[in-house]
Amino acid sequence: MCCCCFGGLCSDFCGAISFAFCTRFRRCETDDAIFFRASVPGLTAEDLHVQVEDTQKYRILQIIGQRNKRKATGDGVASTETTSSGQFVKVYKLPRTKILVDEVRAEVDENGVITITIPRDPSS
């Protein structure tokens, strides 16, 4: 199953992972940085894991999001509890050079939008 909604390397890295929800990331590049942005409503920074990893062939950006929601309702006599969960994994190919891996930043704003900033090396 391939879940990379934006031309990533899913077939090489994701394998057979079950996804409960899919998030579409947009990629934008400037002279100063590469940006990835997506709407992840209901998720917080603690629900997301972002890492840059080197393999023999590629430098990759991996984004993992985990959603766990629990909702309880009741009228005093009867109550119900609903839980839902899901995970997404996104993998994108990055340049092997010209980026500052140690300065990658990921932020989630109050509207549930994640922005990942990968600065470019100004000396290259």
From TrEMBL:
InterPro entries listed in its UniProt record: A-crystallin/Hsp20_dom, HSP20-like_chaperone, Small_HSP
Alphabetized UniProt keyword annotations: Stress response
Record-annotated SHSP domain positions: 16-124
Pfam families named among the record's database cross-references: HSP20 (PF00011)
Coiled-coil stretches noted in the UniProt entry, renumbered to this chain: none
PROSITE patterns: SHSP
Family indicated by similarity: Belongs to the small heat shock protein (HSP20) family.
Name used for this protein in its record: SHSP domain-containing protein
Record organism: Marchantia polymorpha (Common liverwort)
